[in-house]
Automatic annotation (TrEMBL), chain A:
It comes from the Bacteria. Signal peptide: none annotated. Belongs to the sigma-70 factor family. ECF subfamily. InterPro entries: RNA_pol_sigma-70-like, RNA_pol_sigma-70_dom, RNA_pol_sigma70_r2, RNA_pol_sigma70_r4_t2, RNA_pol_sigma_r2, RNA_pol_sigma_r3/r4-like, WH-like_DNA-bd_sf. Keywords: Sigma factor, Transcription, Transcription regulation. One of its GO terms (biological process) is DNA-templated transcription initiation. Gene3D superfamilies: 1.10.1740.10, Winged helix-like DNA-binding domain superfamily/Winged helix DNA-binding domain. One of its GO terms (molecular function) is sigma factor activity. This is RNA polymerase sigma-70 factor (ECF subfamily). Residues 128-179 form the RNA polymerase sigma factor 70 region 4 type domain. It comes from Brevundimonas halotolerans. Residues 29-93 form the RNA polymerase sigma-70 region domain.
TrEMBL record, chain B:
Residues 215-238 are annotated as: Disordered. Residues 98-229 form the Anti-sigma K factor RskA C-terminal domain. This is Anti-sigma-K factor RskA. It comes from the Bacteria. Residues 215-226 have a biased composition (Basic and acidic residues). Pfam families: RskA_C. One of its GO terms (cellular component) is plasma membrane.
């Protein structure tokens, strides 16, 4: 069973992991592995592949925890960003047969297992992001969400939407600027 | 800095964090983030903001074998209560009896390619069997052990073919006794081994067996693997 961690405790455990503390590393794993597994599985849609990437992720955490700076990022952001980027790297590293999952089904792959992170997510921030995404043009919001959840490039998005590449870039760049403006209101 | 320049930097950092750029564009943005702290901070900001999209993804518990793999890969199995993890990982593989019995029955009824009668176990003398499976549930190796004679019979499937690493067989001992290296095995063809000394008793008592993949020329310490554990299975009496 996972321990309940708050943001400071997770930051502290990451700091200790960076100093080679394996007990702290285990605490980080137990508090975050279900969350990161959900992220990997969402992008890769294959449990075996997701677990292979999870091994890489936690090796990265073990090796890079010393570089984690709580002043620059929250521990959850740092870990989720590593998980997402590693999953996308794997997705693009070879010809992985992958069926596109509609963004509307983004949450269907998860099994709802409890996570210690449930206690420390900043619900207000997530809610605010959702509100701001919903304020964008529907198609722009959709492609930004697709890019995040599926790790696909401009080129793939343009093909899927049957839209010129330049138009797709314009949609997303303008959408990101509007998103930033909304988030900082 | 003009508003237009600011907007351009914000948008470029955002599309880099979102991972929509082409490989060449992404490499350029990565280099820029490394050399320009202002751009790098903008990327961090986007990562922070965009990561909240993942908040809605429900957690999924990884399999119990993942942590031992991670721990082994960091070289820390011996220092972090490895026994608990190995036991948890071994105990998680229940329900293998039927598969083990079926596999051995088939193995005996239809011996592996080019069977050598001298190396094919006799049904009556086999006392313990195990089917070692990969994480995806595919069988990698079937094992039979005769505790009376110390004879160990291994029948790998084709799953380990093509791997340049060397498979090593491990016993998982009862009562938090840790793990014990049996030795390197042939991952391609059936083989027979005659265990001698204390390991005969350890193989009789072991609760499970596992295979780790080690780099060529490297022999791990007898109490922990250095390479990833790729297959495992419970010992069952026949």
């Amino acid at each position: 069973m996972t321990a309940v961690f708050d943001r400071d405790a997770l930051s502290e455990a990451l700091g200790q992991t960076g100093q080679g503390d394996r007990a702290a590393f285990r605490r980080v794993y137990e508090a975050t592995s279900a969350k990161l597994m959900g992220v990997c599985l969402r992008i890769l849609s294959d449990r075996q592949l997701a677990e292979d990437v999870m091994q890489e992720i936690y090796l990265t955490v073990w090796n890079k925890a010393a570089s984690f700076d709580p002043g620059r990022a929250s521990p959850i952001t740092w870990l989720v960003t590593i998980a997402r980027n590693r999953s996308i790297d794997r997705l693009r590293s070879g010809a992985i047969a992958r069926n596109s999952v509609p963004v509307d089904a983004a949450y269907d792959l998860a099994d709802g297992a409890p996570s210690a992170l449930d206690h420390i997510e900043l619900a207000d921030d997530a809610g605010r992001l959702g509100v701001c995404l919903d304020e964008l043009d529907e198609k722009v919001s959709r492609v930004i969400r697709t890019a995040f959840f599926e790790g696909v490039t401009y080129e793939v998005l343009a093909q899927r939407e049957e839209t010129p590449l330049g138009t797709m870039k314009s949609w997303i760049r303008r959408g990101l600027l509007k998103l930033r403006s909304c988030l900082e209101q | 800095m003009t508003a237009s320049n600011d907007d351009d930097r914000i948008a470029r950092a955002g599309e880099y964090a979102l991972r929509v750029l082409s490989p060449a564009e992404e490499a350029a943005a990565r280099a820029e983030a490394a050399r320009d702290p202002v751009f790098g901070a903008e990327v961090d900001r986007w990562n922070d903001q965009l990561s909240h999209m993942a908040d809605g993804i429900a957690p999924v518990q990884p399999s119990a074998s993942l942590w031992p793999r991670i721990l082994a890969a960091t070289g820390g199995a011996a220092n972090d209560n490895a026994v608990t993890f190995w036991r948890r990982w071994a105990i998680g593989s229940t329900g293998l009896l039927a598969a083990s019995l079926a596999a051995v029955a088939i193995m005996i009824a239809t011996p592996a390619p080019a069977p050598d009668p001298a190396t094919t176990p006799v049904a009556g003398s086999i006392t313990r069997v195990a089917t070692l499976k990969l994480d995806n549930g595919v069988t990698a190796l079937t094992l039979a052990y005769d505790s009376a004679t110390g004879e160990l019979y291994l029948a790998p499937t084709r799953e380990m073919e093509g791997d340049t690493r060397i498979p090593h067989l491990w016993l998982v001992l009862p009562n938090e006794g840790g793990v014990q290296l049996v030795g390197a095995i042939d991952g391609h063809d059936t083989s027979r081994h005659n265990l001698e000394g204390v390991i005969v008793g350890q193989a009789t008592e072991a609760i499970a067996v596992a295979v780790s993949m080690e780099e060529p020329g490297h022999t791990p310490n007898p109490d922990r693997p250095d390479g990833p554990v790729v297959a495992e299975g419970e010992f069952q009496p026949l």
